[in-house]
Amino acid sequence: MSVSPQIDFQFDRQHIWHPYTSMTHALPAYGVVAAEGCELILEDGRRLIDGTSSWWACVHGYGHPYILEAMQKQLSTLSHVMFGGITHPAAVAVSKKLIAMTSDNLTKVFLADSGSIAVEVAMKMALQYWQGRSNPNKQRILTVKHGYHGDTFAAMSVCDPEGGMHTMFGEAVTQQLFAPAPKTPFGEALREGGLEAMEALLEANHQTIAAVIIEPIMQGAGAMHFYSADYLKGLRELCDRFKVLLILDEIATGFGRTGKLFAYQHADIEADILCLGKALTGGYISLAATLCSDEVALGISDSPSGVFMHGPTFMGNPLACAAASASMDLINQNQWPEQVAAIEQQMKQELAPASTIAGVKAVRCLGAVGVIEMQQSVNTAALQQAFVDRGVWVRPFSNYIYIMPPYTISAAQLSQLTQAMLEVAAIAAKQKTEDSDTNSGFISHG
């Protein structure tokens, strides 16, 4: 593919915000003008193997003909229409597929436009449900530390309250309840006392708690930590015992990322409310979904308003629904389990030497997620340049160097990514803490 420079970088630096970036001390922005397969193409013609799937969304790679064809067909007939009092084939099609793919109890679908909004919708559903069940005092949300659920205000309130990105907003953010983060690693039986703090909080506060929200199996931006499936099983039992709804945030983990179609399947449980996003459309356009059970929907409908109080302008956008429906078709072809298993096996083998690098705290792999955890925070800008110099796109944050590549990545491309991670981890180990940049590179819920 022939490309030529076409980006006004000076204008970009002076006028355009980028995620978690200062307007006075901005991180470098690399100009991308095209993408093919698993590669980003820079304005100067260089190609970078994408190790992040564009923040975990582009699981099928770029330029997939099936998704593009579906979007082009939809664009020529109906690109957008209000969802109030109107429905359309694309929304019906994708909702049918989501209901068929998720657990049997999830029968209602709310289609919004971003992951953060999916979480807002889920939290609002939980509070309004209890209004309809004559428990209006249930207004609080319980979660765990080190979590991340998005950047809008309700979502911020259930992000990590101490080391998270949103501590500066203080009392403007609703004060929620936090249990310690799960400690037992994935693959292990729950350690003694692993749920004691969560149980104590529920016992003391269940009369005012509407729901527990958690990222199943993998805490993403909070710690890149994989925890025991037994924790989720026990949490489901606690929510049932104390009559509290369970919200599972699968925005980052859904559609195969952890080796199961949905991460909650590792624990064989069901959510009362489920949040989906990112890979929902294969990363081709923004869409999110919040699914709930019949019981939750009936409770909301029995609330004083009689209707669910949310209605985004781009709810059920036909173009996004068409992309999501096509992406679900590709997922349902069932090639992803073999692809993800191969990625996991290769990453475990090729990232293992990182454990011998001074300054590396841990190496973790699960599904199509590979993480090198450093002892100290890294300099995002410096490491970003080092990765680009090696022909790959990897976006470190805090003290984590991680990849979540597209499922379609080749073994050779994955090896180039893992080799770059080893080399850059060695560079990061030599950095001084005072040189590190801890306020950039975070993961977004869009």
Give the overall pLDDT as a whole number.
94
Counted by DSSP, the helix tally is: 13
C-alpha termini separation: 30 Å
The best one-word shape is globular
Strand content of the residues, in percent? 15-25%
Instruction: Strand order, main sheet: write it out.
Output: 4-12-11-10-7-5-6
In short:
The chain is α/β, with parallel strands linked by helices and 446 residues long. Helices cover 34% and strands 16% of the residues.
Can you characterise this structure?
With 446 residues, this protein is of the alpha/beta class. The chain has 13 helices and 16 strands. It has helices spanning 9-15, 53-56, 65-77, 89-101, 115-132, 153-157, 196-205, 229-241, 294-301, 318-332, 336-351, 380-389, 411-429; strands at residues 32-36, 39-42, 47-50, 106-112, 140-144, 177-179, 209-214, 218-219, 225-226, 245-249, 273-276, 288-293, 360-366, 369-374, 392-393, 400-403. A seven-stranded mixed sheet has the order 4-12-11-10-7-5-6, sandwiched between helices. A four-stranded mixed sheet has the order 1-2-3-15. Strands 13-14-16 form a three-stranded antiparallel sheet, covered by helices on one side. A hairpin with a 4-residue loop joins strand 2 (39-42) and strand 3 (47-50). It is globular and about 60 Å long. It starts with 8 loop residues before the first helix and ends in a 17-residue tail after the last helix. Mean pLDDT is 94; it is low at 433-440.
